[in-house]
Amino acid sequence: MSAVITVRNLRKQYRYARSGRGLLSAEHTTIDALSGVSFDIEAGERVALIGPNGAGKSTTLKILTGILQPSGGDATVLGLTPWRERLKLTHRIGVVFGQRSQLWSELPVRDSFALLRRIYNQDAAVFAARLGRLIERFDLARLLPQPVNRLSLGQRMRCEVVASLLHGPAVLFLDEPTIGLDITAKAAIRDLINAQAQSEGLTVVLTSHDTRDIELVCERVIVVNAGRIVVDQPTAELRRQFLSRKLITIRSAAPAIMLELPGVSRRPGEPHLSLLDVDTRVARIDHVVAAALALGGIEDITIEDPPMEEVIHEIYAA
Q1: Contact 37, 60 (CB under 8 A)
Q2: Can you name the residues that pair with 251 across neighbouring β-strands?
Q3: Rounded to whole angstroms, how far apart are CA atoms 279 and 264?
Q4: Which of 234, 137, 155 is CA-nearest to residue 191?
Q5: Rounded distance, CA 199 to CA 129, Å?
Q6: pLDDT, one tens digit for every residue, the chain (318 residues)
Q7: Based on the number of CB atoms within 10 Å of its own CB, is 157 exposed (0-12), middle (13-18) or buried (19 or more)?
Q8: Whole-angstrom distance, CA of residue 171 vs CA of residue 80
Q9: What's the Cα-to-Cα distance from 157 to each of 46, 179, 201, 284, rounded to whole Å?
Q10: How far apart are CA 113 and CA 119, in angstroms?
Q11: DSSP 3-state helix, strand, coil percentages of the chain (rounded to 5)?
């Protein structure tokens, strides 16, 4: 395989006014959003770019898609320099920003797709065939006549992903594609992205704070913090080292539950709310839940991944 994305010593600085004495007299300072990032991504790889807020993830994606120009370093996507050859690049990549739409809110979904065909200057027959496959795979038939602004968030995100694929891109960039979605909608988006990537041989670069996005879609993880890469390894290895914990929150009629199991520790919590930290290498989640239910008086149970900040902390502590 050959690299379709190359990044060498990429840097990005932002300059801003530090005092409130006016634009001309204000003192200025700089912030390093990226401080010498380098990596390669091969054709067909599915890579997660993760880290806490402000780590440099979105800045990297915006540079690679040509939205931002770096302060230093080099990068190519499909042999093109993004910020110099953005128009050429847009015809070969797909982009989804979870909090921004590329669809026209007042128009039916079908009309937005038709406009995108014109924008990308796609052959009508090729476009129709590709759209038909995507409509079937993403189950969009009943959504096509509906205005975008009447769709649920999960429905809109399915349409956003399809919109990013209509021109047959070789690389798909996804910035928080499941943000704000419920569990069912998140699972659907992940499955669809995975299936499409595997069937079309897409290269996928994804940013997310949801570790399930990382585990279920990507085969490699690049962890960025304070503008630098701190970990770059296969997802399976990262999961083995750093994603082996789950948090179980139990709401009970009793002020606290007395649950003593190997691999399970208790975090400080409120009365009637027990927070359990579970090492899944030692204790199975279903066994912990069964043991809690056997105590009786359980009103609610939620299971979630540790916050990304804790995963980053574990990476540094390793």
Answers
A1: yes
A2: 273, 300
A3: 6
A4: 137
A5: 15
A6: 579 999 999 999 988 766 655 555 557 788 888 999 999 999 999 999 988 888 889 899 999 999 999 999 999 999 999 999 999 999 999 999 877 889 999 999 999 999 999 999 999 999 999 999 999 988 899 999 999 999 998 899 999 999 999 999 999 999 988 888 888 888 888 988 888 888 889 999 999 888 788 888 999 999 998 899 988 999 888 777 777 788 899 999 998 888 889 999 999 888 999 999 999 889 999 999 999 999 999 999 999 877 766 776 777 665
A7: buried
A8: 12
A9: 19, 10, 21, 33
A10: 10
A11: 35, 30, 35
The Cα 214–Cα 62 span in angstroms is 20
Residue type for position 146: Q
pTM of the model: 0.80
Instruction: Please name the helix (run of DSSP H) or strand (run of DSSP E) that holds residue 134, with its range, or none.
Output: helix 124-138
Chain centroid to CA 182? 15
How far is Cα of residue 18 from the mean position of the Cα atoms in its chain? 32
pLDDT at res. 44: 93
Structure tokens given for 113: 């797709």
Strand partners, 260: none
Closest CA to 32 of 10, 49, 7, 48: 10
User: Distance of CA 114 to CAs 104, 124, 161, Å?
Assistant: 11, 10, 15
Question: Alpha carbon of 260 to those of 2, 257, 265, 282, 301: distances in Å?
Answer: 51, 9, 8, 13, 17
CA 5 to CA 61: how far, in whole Å?
Answer: 11
